[in-house]
Amino acid sequence: MAVAGQLCLLYLSAGLLARLSTAFNLDTREDNVIRKSGDPGSLFGFSLAMHWQLQPEDKRLLLVGAPRAEALPLQKANRTGGLYSCDITSRGPCTRIVF
Asked: What is the 3-state composition of the chain as percent helix, strand, coil, each rounded to the nearest 5?
């Protein structure tokens, strides 16, 4: 009987933990979601950072890492990874930052 009670308690606590750890979106409206995409297989979006550019103009940027992006034409490697700058105030595409 004690084993059955312990198993019941284990199942109940596992169910409670599963309910506490579920995720949800705060903003579900489509106009609040920023969607940007990169090359398939580049792992676009692997790392993200917010940046506030003050000069030459004031704008907010999302810096997006793509560690498996293909190399630029003048680089002597196949996959060097890439860093992209995405203007979050517009619907335009992200642009790759050239170092």
From this structure: 20, 25, 55
